[in-house]
# Entry
Amino acid sequence: MQNWIDAYSWINIRFLLQGLGITILISVISVILSFIFGSILGIIRYAKIPYFSRIIGFIIDVVRNLPLLLIIFFTYFGLPAFGFKPDTIPAAILAMTFFESMMIAEIIRSGILAVDIGQMEAARAQGMKLGQAMWHVILPQAYKKMIPALVSQFISLIKDTSLATIIVVPELMQHGQVVYGQNPNYIIPVFVIMAVMYFVVCYALSLLSKYIDHRMA
Amino acid sequence: MIKLLVDNWSAFISGFGWTVLSSLVALFFSLIIGSLFAILEVMPSKTARVIGNVYVEIFRNIPLLVITMFFYLVIPQYIVKINGFTAGTIGLTIYTSAFIAETVRSGINSVDIGQMEASRAQGMTFWQAMRYIVLPQAFKLVIPPLGNQFINLVKNSSVLAFVAGFDLMYQGNAIASTTFETVNTYIVVGLFYLVITLPISYYMQHLERKLA
# Structure
């Protein structure tokens, strides 16, 4: 029991909360960036531009099928060979953004495909250009349909930031390791509180997604 | 890059083998555990549904790494000596089973409720109806999403590298740190993962189109 009380001293809890803050910071920046890049890539793949869309599509398929951990390693240990040496947090954001953009691109593409083809035809028949029809008619409907998939992707992104501990990014998992590194008796209490912190953030998001989905339907 | 591959061939292949083994073992057990929890989630008893739900929500919302490290650090200390490979595979199994439970449950829910009612009306018990009528139809529907779960599983098995699980990622790191050829090593490691994941991914896309 004393172990649990010691493990949950304010200094440790505050340190873990700081880690959680970094976890959320990395996740939010990465998700915003990957939403932008993912939208662009998804639309390019959907647009079927000769050769170009095919190549982008192949890159998306390749990256989606690689472990994120490999991409993190590559970013941090491989990129310096090309003369670019990012710091740990930017490296984590770069790796996550690269990977998540490809995941989100697929979500965006299938969201666009789920919008009835008649919508595009009608918009074009009204004299809208392809870009206008996309922006004003198709995308608003597509994004609405994609909200659950996008939120669950965001949840996996938050969980996946824990992998960045391997390049010593000071996020929650890494701070947890520092705390239980002081004393092996802290292992169980620290894992419990870390699991609770991740759970609260991720579960709250999944409830939010269900709520939005429910209200839109 | 070819020289690197040839020089370290046995290390790459052994890593590849452990990755495949861990993924298959985890797939096998997480299919069983996942299906059991999926059935719990649709049982008439409220307690069963709550138990199923709690299990799924807990393990879906905690990072795989947290689960894996927990088993790696705690089981050997208090229960029984296990190596990183075993601990990692247990972590993978538990994490994946929560996702498989969700997938199978959605499959069960999309089987017409009349199928269950008709089987019960024929005098079958709940478990008989599940086993012989509902699950066979449900599994057919969820083959593409289960394939995607398997791809995730193969990719996720890279966390074994954290617990010295001899897998592809772990071997890759070892090779990268001895040869200093980080870029080439990671590209080769990536190609090994793609050999498994890319064909399954294209096959599942093909199946989805065929079923749709």
